[in-house]
Queue: 3 jobs
Job 1
Amino acid sequence: MCSKFNIVLVTISLRCLLVLASDPDPLQDFCIPNPKLGAIRTTSLTILPCKNSSDATTEDFVFSGMKTAGNFSETGLAAVPANPTNFPGLNTLGMSFVRADLKVGAINPPHFHPRATEITYIMQGSVYSGFVDSSNRVFAKALEQGEAMVFPRGLVHFQMNVGDKIAIVFGCFNSQNPGNQKIPSAIFGSGIDDKLLEKAFGLSSKQIGTMRRRFVRKTVR
């Protein structure tokens, strides 16, 4: 009896962990946000009430924004996200997407998603992709068109175009709000004390200043 009881407890615990590792299950078929009803803001996210399901249209469940690349940054990366903000039909379904275009030699710098696992699919080109686990072991290779790779939730991962043409990558997340924390910006653009950074990275105060100027957040006026 005790053995069976322990097995049941373990099974229940594993199921609970699986539930906690993803977005909450929806309580209805879908929830198309209705901005006119006013947003409910919490410390971590903004919740939009659903509009009446009878008012939903096919267009709520269609997204055409990934037909072309987004605007390229100075680093040669262009990203077009698809989430409930611009794709209403995704709301409460626990998933989101992104199209990323990388110019030749461009990178998607080391970053992680605190609330989601990501599967990345190479639609065009050759992309060096990988992640680092909690023992600092790196899993990486150059992925070719048609190949996919999974980045476990919360682990640092990265990409670099190693081909001779623009690379197109499609990413899928198991959260509608995966979050995105870029390592360089988090370290040098967040206001961590310079002395700590000097000791952590063995850099001089002048070098720390140079890094800060590259990654510090620009004040929006």
Job 2
Amino acid sequence: MEEFRNDAYENAKIYKEQTKKWHDKLIVRKELKPGQQVLLFNSLLKLFPGKLKSRWSGPFSVETVYTHGAIELKCSDGRTFKVNGQRVKPYYGNEVRHLDNINLDGST
């Protein structure tokens, strides 16, 4: 009976290690700097959201980036709060992106 218990323990340990490796592989690291503008994902908007209502709020300014993945954000009214770094994405609203023109007819 003890042998079955040890085998089950080892199998559970191997499964947890593989699951953690798979989960960590899916996490995308974001390079955010203090002063950068970001949008915050609103995870509370789940029950009957409007079709055109965005789940992203902001923009907010990054105050501090911590080593463990937390980010301190600053509102436009001056309040600061901490959030998980996975809930934010960079905001490019103030920047103008230049796109190259591509001719579909083959001429240059």
Job 3
Amino acid sequence: MTNAGLSIQRIKWDDCLLLLSLCLMVQISVALNPSRIIGGKLDTIENNPWLISIAVEEFGGHFCGGSLITPSWVLTAAHCLVEVTDTRSLLLRAGSDHKNYGGEIRKVRQKITHPDFQRYYPMDYDYGLMETRRPFVLGPKIAIIQLAGIDDSLRINQDCKIAGWGVTNNPAQIHRPLKSAIVKVGKLEDCRAKYVPDIITNNMVCAGGNGNDACQGDSGGPIICGGKQFGVVSWGRQCGVIDYYVIYASVTVIRRWIFDYVGV
């Protein structure tokens, strides 16, 4: 068996945040199974006005998150988009505490995945963009998040914020309102020690390890550090496991790619 095959075998992909990597419908079912814990607290969209809920029209439910980076563009994870064959089925919701009702909805004009996205191994360049058919109207509940620049950097143990509508530990939360949590930035070397070393690249950010984590349904959402978005929720071994980090696709390394499409 090749090293790549051995690495893939050692990863419990069923526990990862890969909501769309195998089958869109199956993975959406997984995302709606409230069996994990991410810690954190209930929050409001006013505190996270850049947060976007992504749904597929025919299934009718939220399956990934995203961030509003201009009134007409949303940044998310590539693995949230690769299995969506009909762009017209995508729905983007902004300005609501809840993922399946309220706020404003926009349809998608085009979706773009990073050309270097590696879908299975090592899940690198996990970036996707969506352009809306009409721009969102900005206000107290809908706002743009500033992206980290190529010269911005993170400190080890720096506090960062994540938010989303993903899986929690409360089976009663059928409509699961928005939650947020504080996670700490970790060392890539520590992540490599916990995972298979060659699947953690320099295009990734590690954060968590303290029981507060993103989970299924949070993929594509932002990690906010010092008021700027430094990453996109990509994957992880499990949710809320002490000493295991969630892996985020680093925003700073692909700022030129985003600028070429979006102009920011």
